[in-house]
Amino acid sequence: MNTWRNASLAVTAAAVLALTTACGQETGTTTPAGQAVGAAKPAGQPAAGGYGADYSGAGEAASAPKTAGQLAVLDSKKLGKVLTDSEGWTLYRFDKDTVSPPKSNCEGDCAKAWPVVAAGDVTAAPGTDASLIGEVTRADGSKQLTIGGWPMYRYAKDTKPGDTKGQGVGGTWFASAPDGKKAAAGGAGDGAEEAGGEAADLAGLSVRKDPKLGDVVVDKNGMTVYRFMKDSAWPMKTACTGACLEKWPVVEPVAKNDTEGILKKGFVTFDRPDGIKQQTIDCWPIYTYSGDSKPGDTNGQGVGGTWYAVSPQGKPVGAPK
Question: How far is CA 212 from CA 17, 142, 298, 309, in A?
């Protein structure tokens, strides 16, 4: 009996080892065999001197929300019409929130990086529809401003009125248009949004044919996915930490059955040394780029000679051989 049990355990252990060593990991699909290069710092943390510090101190941003007062509309050459508060700070919306019914899914550390805009004492911008102004009750009982049903936020790293540094962060944060949709050049809102206000129905990871780069991987928001040439797949390591993650947010874990056209070999979750969970393709960690402002952008391609769009097989598109 004991002999059979020991043999069974050995076979199970061997199977687990075979799966995990595909990416040079020692135990499980989420334990890295290497360490990060540089100081670890989770993405999305507020920087000193940004809006969070200017307004109430980054540590207090979530507990001391400030109203927007008289709303205004900024004409941005890059983004079209952008909604701001009375002081000119850009207002943002979060794709992981819901609009029907309105609900905020940004709490804790998220709300420190993205201070909520309090409801009350808010006046519509001239020429905009005042009926779009509303409010939602947050988990802590406070009231948050909504525009067209979408909860509104500021960004802690915007350092002066008119900044739009939060645009495209993580592929989920976007400056708000006056109607609550995503700001877009021409002021038409996000063309990928459906009538119900949600983003187009894309898989967690899928493939888009770029006119210059060919087939590249995109996330659920249509944002281009990138690889960092200083990372390693065997053993799995990351060289993008701290400030790097502010520009290159990780792609969060995606279920295999929520992909289209992506290589499934080496499609595992990387449990980074900084505690962030990151998706990989062919064992390579993948990222988006904060400099991409809308689906289809490839502004991260070739940056520093180390960042490249990802092919469906996990290869760096256009990287020198």
Answer: 40, 48, 10, 11
Q: Please give the sequence-ordered ranges of beta strands (E in DSSP) within 223-291, or none if there are none.
A: 226-228, 232-233, 236-237, 269-271, 277-281, 284-285
Give alpha helix (H) positions in the chain. Answer: 2-20, 51-55, 109-113, 243-247
CA separation for the pair 253, 85 (Å, rounded): 34
86-142 pLDDT, tens digit each: 999 999 999 999 988 889 999 999 999 999 999 998 999 998 999 999 999 999 999
Using alpha carbons, select from 241, 236, 228, 199 the residue that is nearest to residue 287: 228
Cα separation, 76 vs 162, whole angstroms: 9
Tell me, what DSSP letter sits at residue 154?
A: -
Task: Give the pairing type, strands 232-233 and 226-228.
Answer: unpaired
Using 70 as the pLDDT threshold, list the residues of the chain that sit under it: 1-22, 24-64, 185-201
How far is it, in rounded angstroms, from Cα 156 to Cα 160? 10
Distance of CA 292 to the CA centre of its chain: 11
Backbone angles phi, psi at 219, to 5 degrees: -85, -170
Pairing assessment for the beta strands 150-151 and 133-137 based on DSSP bridges: unpaired
* CA–CA dist 202, 80 (Å, integer): 25
CA angle 130, 134, 137 (to 5 degrees): 170
List the beta bridge partners of residue 306: none
Whether the bond between 161 and the residue before it is cis, its omega within 30 degrees of 0, is no
* Contact between residue 90 and residue 164 where contact means Cβ atoms under 8 Å apart: yes
What burial class does residue 284 get, using C-beta atoms within 10 Å of its C-beta: 0-12 exposed, 13-18 middle, 19+ buried?
buried
What pTM was estimated for this model as a whole? Answer: 0.48
- Please state, in angstroms and rounded to a whole number, the distance separating the CA atoms of residues 201 and 218: 13
